Amino acid sequence: MSSIEEFASMEKGREYYQKLVEELERLNERVHAFNNINHGISSGFPFSAKDNLCVKGVETTASSKVLSGYMPPYNATVIKRLFSKGFSFLGKTNMDEFGFGSFGINAPEIARNPFDERYVAGGSSSGAAVATSILKYHVAIAESTGGSIATPASFCGVVGFTPTYGTVSRYGLIDYSNSMDKIGVMARVAKDIKPIFDLIRGADGYDSTTTNSPITSINKKRLIVIDQLIGLVDQRIRSLFEKLLDKLNSMGYSIEHRSLDMIDASIASYYIIAMAEASTNLARYTGFKYGLKVENFEKGYNEFFTDARSAFGEEAKRRILLGTFVRSANVRDKYYFKALKVKDLLFNKLNEILKEGFIIMPVMPIPTPRIDDARKLTPLQVYKMDALTIPPNLCGFPHISFPYGYDNGLPVGAQVITSKFNDYSIINFVEEWEENFEYKFKYNIGEVR
Ligand code: GLN
Asked: What is the topology classification, in CATH, of domain 3-217+398-434?
């Protein structure tokens, strides 16, 4: 039984939701999972939305000061679809500003790992993962461009599903990189993911990249490890991962190894494309249309826009500069167009491998870092941490991350990737995994006793 069905079968009155919100509010002061909490919730299964998804009349900032006070006048398609089936909005979850980051530290308030608050929750959907980890009955609607669902899900010990690009409408999403942004789902168990995915996916007249392609569930019982990717992984994670492979082998999966020599090129390609698109998307924040209003019209042109755009965080500014550079006329062949070629090449190579079976790998090459240590990393060091999450994200392949162990009391996750539109197969794979492994949670807010 999914926890959605379990929840529906239980008696709950108004007091249940009051208590839920009170307890959540209290813990949120420490873990910063939510940017805002809906105190009006009084029925239905609770869901949260990453703060880059528009919910009508609810402040939506993508954790950016530039958008402070922005109240969308409409609901994103995913939100509309959830409302149509009686799901209830619990609040907006914290994130790295505009989705720029891997550790949740590029935000005004840093989300904390619920297993140990000195550690990061992962990013960019940091709050979605923390919320899922602390709430007993809840699903999170999150978004991934280059790993923002898999990474935080892995650090917080929950299941993170990123669907095939184009299956879920992006209408009402604050764009980061339109050609790669994917709205997905985090839940405590894989069983809760399929019903939500089925509800939110499907063609939408407001997003021309969406399709109604049938979703399949083909599982060849073969797991493929890409040697160069595993080669990047820290020894501690690697030995835990080897044990996972042994366990999966005993569950009837064969393990095979393949070689793929494009890791550095794929990281570079991802960041060039992502920043190029981000720099055009951020051009609309000029201080008079959305969010922050700069009303000093006596100032000169340059001064006015300098004021308006100084509200961006450091990482956003870096991406505006680099993104504008890589697509400028004199260098775009060298960077932007080359990056698109690398993406095509990588897609073809991975697509061939995926015809043989699922690709499996850890999510992050390092154990969960402390917040202090993550802050010491240079931007380039942070970008390189995405080596394992970039390949499926750059190419739009569906992938799912799941907890498979605990190291020093902190969860560790792995991910499986499959061919486009074979999304059900990997959700089923994690359902099968869950029958043999017990997930741990530190909090159970909303538990019915
Ligand atoms: N860490 C990656 C980046 O900063 C991915 C983030 C995301 O998926 N939104 O671009």
From this structure: Amidase signature (AS) enzymes (3.90.1300)
